[in-house]
UniProtKB/TrEMBL annotation:
Belongs to the TPP enzyme family. The gene is alsS. The keyword Nuclease does not apply. The lineage of its organism: Bacteria, Pseudomonadati, Pseudomonadota, Alphaproteobacteria, Acetobacterales. GO terms for molecular function: acetolactate synthase activity. It is an enzyme of class 2 (transferase). This is Acetolactate synthase AlsS.
Length: 559
């Protein structure tokens, strides 16, 4: 390998690879093309593993999954024109979700950038609105600088997507000078919020009669979750979370947990927030759950803990902001606050919430032979997910059922898209989880609509021998759209599609495919999946008879 490198002239493509190596990149996902193939050729001499995807959008989803799980930017590469434009949805998702991603795209030569020529496109301008950083390498000398700044933007708070365009003539340019490589520099470390602000926040907490904690996406980072758990244990405060905060609350704190909230203001967690006289938001981003839906008392004080100042909203205008390292700030606040007794004022709501969860599972039963109720499926899954298996959810009404009823107790154990509510993420994210930890089984879940938006990369999962089980909830509709249309208009429109034999579909890719039609057959299929090396697809006909309840108000919330 070393001899091959030294026997040829070094190009800007080689310099990009050296920067990626220096940054600690292990895997790159992408699809080659004429304007970017020099970079793929340079990667052949690198220890970085190149994974060829079947669609550029899925390549970014995979890179985003790696970024979310590891905290370091995943990398995706695409060729010019439509190759780069296919990155858009993945980058918008990553930036909304706070997932660090670096994408590199090919481009026509500099002399042709403004011409009407094959695959000429102003991709830097096109992707700027959906990234934190979008730039072009205009000359070989700028290579290391641009790559380093792209990584820094992707990985700095709040994390997100970055894009670097490389014109073909720059990529092929011979390197004649010893340009520096800017390697894996540690991100700038933030300290805790100022001590006087922490004291002010502690005083406000001690004064409040009914304080409630609202956890957001950044709360679920492992180091933040550890500090938050210690805070909740000491203060005994009621706590709720957005969908993306899943796993932050540990099993020992479950009695203080009022559930996950999002999309519709109709959960017991919403009731807790309605009753609160002070809300403590930790790592919360308004894109997760619109403040106007959960904050019905805009004049009520909010204490916000985050890595960046809040983007102000009429319904989210924090009175006290603690900006800095979330983990360190929460640790200092825990010491300053000490034990509290005010959380007991809301115990009744927590008790009713837990009772309602048990009652929902007890009465859940399909009304149709050969179909399963959503909670029958989730009840079966509980035993498997409890083994500390990572679960990746696509977007659809099924993800609401999971978010409200499936318990997980490890930070980042459940990956959910709630920023852009992007369909098609589950399978690529599951592949990422398998890449990061190949020894651990991963479960991903899609509807039959969302699965077909990324299903072409099932072949990639087979090629990678991804250790995953993918469950498809089958009802032959875009169901989340359907229930909202029926609620608004009394009927649905343009949401139905035809049947697919998903077991046969999976087998055609070389994966194991299983169709189930009962609770017992689902249990057997999951056991078989756990014992199988490589991807397994399980198709479950689902009876969504109780879906209207997902949007119905709770009686307690209407009083």
């Amino acid at each position: 390998m070393t001899q091959k490198k030294s026997s040829k002239a070094q190009t800007a493509a080689d310099l990009i690879v050296r920067n990626l190596e220096a940054h600690g990149v292990d895997h790159i996902v992408g699809i080659p093309g004429a304007k970017i193939d020099r970079l793929f050729e340079a990667l052949e001499d690198s220890p970085i593993r190149t994974i060829v995807a079947r669609h550029e959008q899925n390549a970014v989803f995979m890179a985003g999954g790696i970024g979310r799980i590891t905290g370091k930017a995943g990398v995706a590469i695409a060729t010019s024109g439509p190759g780069v434009s296919n990155l858009t949805t993945g980058l918008a998702t990553a930036t909304s979700e706070g997932d660090p991603v670096l994408t590199i795209g090919g481009a026509v030569g500099r002399a042709e950038l403004l011409k009407l020529t094959h695959q000429s496109m102003d991709t830097v301008s096109m992707l700027r609105p959906v990234t934190k950083y979008s730039a072009e390498i205009g000359a070989p000398a700028a290579t290391s600088e641009v790559i380093a700044n792209a990584f820094r933007a992707a990985e700095s708070p709040r994390q997100g997507g970055a894009f670097v365009s490389v014109p073909m003539d720059v990529l092929n340019s011979e390197i004649t000078e010893d340009y520096p490589v800017m390697g894996n520099r540690n991100a700038v470390k933030a300290g805790p919020a100022p001590e006087d602000v922490i004291k002010e926040a502690a005083a406000a907490l001690k004064k409040a009669r009914k304080p409630v904690v609202l956890l957001g996406m950044k709360a679920s980072k492992p180091e933040n979750a550890e500090a938050i758990r210690a805070f909740l244990k000491q203060t005994n405060l009621p706590v709720v979370g957005t969908y993306q905060a899943a796993g932050t609350v540990s099993r020992e704190l479950v009695s203080r947990f009022g559930g996950r909230i999002g999309l519709f203001h109709n959960q017991y967690g919403d009731y807790l927030l309605d009753e609160a006289d002070l809300v403590v938001t930790i790592g919360y981003n308004p894109i997760e759950y619109d403040p106007s839906l959960w904050n019905k008392k805009p004049a009520r004080p909010i204490l916000n803990i985050d890595v960046v100042p809040a983007q102000l909203d009429n319904a989210f205008n924090p009175e006290i902001e603690l900006v800095g390292s979330i983990a360190l700030t929460v640790q200092h606040l825990t010491r300053e606050t000490g034990a509290l007794t005010s959380g007991a004022a809301l115990d009744k709501i927590l008790e009713v919430y837990r009772a309602s969860q048990k009652a929902a599972f007890a009465k859940a039963k399909s009304s149709q032979q050969g179909m399963l109720h959503p909670l029958e499926i989730i009840k079966v899954m509980e035993d498997f997910v409890a083994q500390d298996i990572t679960i990746c959810l696509d977007m659809g009404s099924f993800h609401i059922w999971h978010a409200r009823f499936l318990e997980v107790f490890r930070a980042r154990q459940m990956l959910i898209s709630n920023g852009q509510q992007t369909m098609g993420v589950a399978l690529p994210w599951a592949m990422s989880a398998s890449i990061v930890n190949s020894a651990q089984k991963v479960i991903s879940v899609s509807g039959d609509g969302s699965f077909m938006m990324s299903s072409m990369d099932l072949e990639t999962a087979v090629r990678l021998k991804s250790n995953l089980i993918h469950i498809i909830w089958v009802d032959q509709h875009y169901n989340m759209v359907r229930i909202q249309e029926e609620k608004k208009y009394g009927r649905d429109a343009a949401v139905a599609f035809g049947p697919i034999d998903f077991a046969a579909f999976a087998r055609s890719f070389g994966a194991k495919g299983i169709n189930v039609n009962s609770v017992d057959s689902l249990k057997a299929a999951l056991r078989e999946g756990m014992e199988t090396q490589g991807p397994v697809v399980i198709a479950v006909p689902v009876d969504y008879i109780d879906n209207p309840a997902l949007m119905n108000p709770l009686p307690e919330l209407t009083k």
